[in-house]
């Protein structure tokens, strides 16, 4: 892809490693598991997830600015949610990832969280991408709802060409004709992105499937296919989630899913760093 001057793979062996903090990185031998709710709802919700999933997840997710289809749907807790994320992160030591929807949100979020997510709906918001190029925080760039692989790669090129090399790509399913699943997980894209770019690639099986019973299989397939990590939605009371309830895993289900990845990671020469010992959700499973 000739215009992908910075993110394209000129040397076949080149692989970028993006650091989340002093201890954690994405794109090396270790698989990174990010877990958490679609939406931050309360301090207790986030603290429970962090405590119960010790030994299963290495980072927390949770939206405080939510890109909802309906303007009448819950739009996120905003700044109160950022404070909740920051407190849970400080107490648990887990880094946090959250979505940034607008340029004016960048500064506050960048001061409080470890990674800024660009959601599917904003993948080609070029002014937002340029602004994120000037930030000293890693960016998780999700594939647009119907973006081609080239469009996805060029969106990453916007961020990197504006000064921020720390971009992680996320395949989260694309639109197709069948609505049994929310989207169609494009594992071919994971492989293609690994061939075409040196950036780490993770998979979001939750938004791809939209149905919790399919998330385990898609997660295992993603790791077998070479993904560098997963971002998965889970909730202490999945059916009560204020958004995306059908795709939220319970905490025991999340812990079990992570355990099921271990042999697959080993088979593809990767490593799942966390130990299940002392994992409360796993004991409850
Ligand atoms: O809440 C967030 C959902 O993951 C997604 O962004 C939008 O979903 P919706 O169509 O239910 O608003
Ligand atoms: C809204 C989200 O995902 P996507 O942008 O992939 O739809 C999300 O991860 O909260």
UniProtKB/TrEMBL annotation:
It holds the Pfam family DAHP_synth_1. GO terms for molecular function: 3-deoxy-7-phosphoheptulonate synthase activity; aldehyde-lyase activity. Residues 19-257 form the DAHP synthetase I/KDSA domain. Keywords: Transferase. It comes from the Bacteria. Its EC number is 2.5.1.54. It is an enzyme of class 2 (transferase). The keyword Zinc-finger does not apply. GO terms for biological process: aromatic amino acid family biosynthetic process. This is 3-deoxy-7-phosphoheptulonate synthase. It comes from Romeriopsis navalis LEGE 11480.
């Amino acid at each position: 892809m000739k215009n992908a001057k910075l993110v394209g793979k000129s040397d076949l062996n080149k692989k970028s490693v993006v650091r989340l903090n002093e201890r954690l990185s994405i794109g090396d031998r270790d698989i990174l598991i990010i877990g958490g709710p679609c939406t931050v709802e309360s301090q207790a919700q986030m603290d429970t997830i962090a405590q119960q999933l010790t030994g299963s997840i290495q980072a927390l997710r949770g939206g405080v600015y939510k890109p909802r289809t309906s303007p009448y749907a819950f739009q996120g807790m905003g700044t109160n949610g950022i404070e909740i994320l920051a407190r849970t992160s400080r107490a648990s030591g887990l880094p946090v990832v959250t979505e940034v929807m607008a340029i004016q949100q960048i500064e506050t979020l960048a001061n409080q969280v470890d990674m800024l997510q660009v959601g599917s709906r904003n993948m080609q918001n070029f002014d937002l991408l340029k602004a994120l190029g000037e930030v000293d925080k890693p960016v998780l760039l999700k594939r647009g709802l119907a973006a081609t692989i080239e469009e996805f790669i060029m969106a990453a090129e916007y961020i990197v060409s504006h000064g921020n090399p720390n971009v992680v790509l996320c395949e989260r399913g694309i639109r197709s004709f069948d609505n049994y699943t929310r989207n169609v997980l494009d594992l071919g894209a994971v492989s293609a992105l690994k061939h075409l770019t040196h950036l780490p690639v993770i998979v979001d099986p939750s938004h791809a499937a939209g149905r919790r019973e399919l998330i385990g299989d898609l997660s295992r397939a993603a790791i077998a296919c070479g993904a560098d990590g997963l971002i998965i939605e889970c909730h202490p009371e999945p059916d009560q989630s204020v958004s995306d309830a059908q795709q939220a895993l319970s905490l025991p289900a999340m812990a079990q899913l992570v355990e099921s990845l271990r042999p697959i990671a080993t088979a593809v020469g990767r490593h799942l760093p966390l130990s299940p010992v002392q994992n409360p959700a796993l004991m409850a499973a």
